[in-house]
Write a structure and sequence with these properties.
Distance between the termini: 42 Å
Strand content: 15-25%
Shape: globular
Number of strands: 17
Number of helices: 18
Largest sheet: 7 strands, mixed
Helix content: 40-55%
Strand order of the largest sheet: 9-8-7-14-15-17-16
CATH architecture of the largest domain: 3-Layer(aba) Sandwich
Length: 375
């Protein structure tokens, strides 16, 4: 069999993928100047990939309130209006996350006037989700696509993949689901035992309480970052006393075994297990308590949420008893490059009878793409 024939077979297997040109390759080939929108860690990641692909940077711009003589990585930071005054046509590369309506609308407005891409870079770890990467993992992608329980999930899966290849935000706009649609996937009873892994400051704990009207059996919340944990404790302390008695909070990371792990204390939502390949994370790493979901409540859990900044594999293995007992599950699919297919396959391997759904909440890039698993 020739290489062209083999590629043709793989492409037929991935017939739900329509994008074949990576955002990085588009940016490398374009004759238009490329401006990065945003500073910080996201911009640094994109600049590193620009260097890898030899993509020239024409400049950086930010929202007006952040531009007061600032420079970033040797680039003077401008406003968009300043650039538009001197450059007619250019490409905008988004370098930060956007989830609230006013910012989302601002980005869509920019996209209506200029070519705007939000290139996919992993939150944790390395690797890029390119078209060639999709081809390399075609069998796994097809397997997940076929396992999904409804057309909406399959379309969302395809849209997210096409976005991650192309960086074009219209794919995310098309597949965005609202809270009502998502909540219908996970019906709740009055006696849930809820395990919140990556509880942050208590925001998802409060969402659960609001959905149940305070009627639940018990909540177990794990958060490894010390400052976030203090915020979580404050959130719990503001609840009625009888409700506090039904909540157990632990300052620990969700993992596949009980003990200690190396953890980067970021004091933010993106605190994570330290990656030895990431110099900045490894320098901030401290020994932190780790616990499994099954240790917290055995197989009694009825509902588990995990958003643990790239440690989802370990957290899933640590919740295997509960998952095999049929616990409902929400799992983030966006931290690592291969999470989108490896995590659904892991969950299916643990409990093949669970129905798997994928939904994307309003966010650019695809950082709020989650798996919902139910009996």
């Amino acid at each position: 069999m020739t290489m062209n024939s083999l590629t043709g077979i793989i492409m037929n297997e991935l017939d739900f993928i329509t994008e074949r040109t990576d955002s990085w390759e588009f940016l490398r080939r374009t004759e238009l100047p490329v401006f990065i929108y945003g500073m910080g860690d996201g911009c640094e990641k994109i600049l590193r990939v620009f260097e890898q692909y030899s993509i020239p940077t024409a400049g950086i711009f930010a929202s007006d309130e952040f531009v007061r003589g600032h420079s970033f990585k040797s680039h003077l930071v401008h406003t968009l209006s300043q650039i538009e005054e001197i450059v007619d046509e250019f490409v905008v590369v988004l370098a930060f996350g956007a989830g609230y309506d006013s910012l989302y609308k601002k980005i869509e407005d920019i996209a209506s006037r200029h070519i705007l891409l939000a290139p996919d870079v992993p939150v944790v770890g390395g690797g890029l989700f390119t078209y060639s990467y999709a081809l390399e993992n075609a069998a796994k992608l097809r397997r997940v696509y076929d396992l999904l329980a409804d057309d909406r999930s399959r379309q969302t899966f395809a849209d997210v993949i096409n976005f991650r290849i192309s960086g074009r935000i219209e794919y995310l706009t098309r597949c965005t689901a609202d809270d009502e649609e998502i909540n219908e996937l996970i019906p709740l009873t009055d006696d849930e035992i809820y395990v919140d892994l990556g509880a942050y400051n208590g925001d998802t704990l409060k969402e659960f309480i609001d959905r149940t009207g305070g009627r639940f059996s018990h909540i177990y919340a794990a958060e490894p970052d010390r400052r976030n944990f203090r915020k979580l404790e404050k959130t719990i302390a503001e609840l009625p006393g009888e409700m506090q008695d039904r909540i157990t909070a632990v300052n620990a990371a969700a993992w596949d075994d009980d003990g200690q792990i190396s953890f980067a204390q970021n004091s933010g939502r993106n605190s994570s297990a330290a990656d030895i390949t990431n110099e900045r994370l490894s320098q901030r790493a401290e020994e932190t308590a780790a616990v499994t979901a099954d240790t917290l409540c055995g197989a009694a859990a009825t509902f588990i949420k995990m958003d643990v900044e790239g440690a989802e594999r370990q957290a899933l293995k640590g919740a295997e008893k509960a998952i095999k007992s049929g616990a409902k599950l929400i799992c983030a699919l966006y931290h690592r490059t291969d999470d989108l297919f490896e995590l659904p396959l892991l969950i299916h391997e643990m409990m093949p009878s669970l129905k798997l759904y994928i939904r994307h909440k309003k966010y650019i890039p695809a950082w709020e793409t989650n798996l919902y698993a139910v009996k």
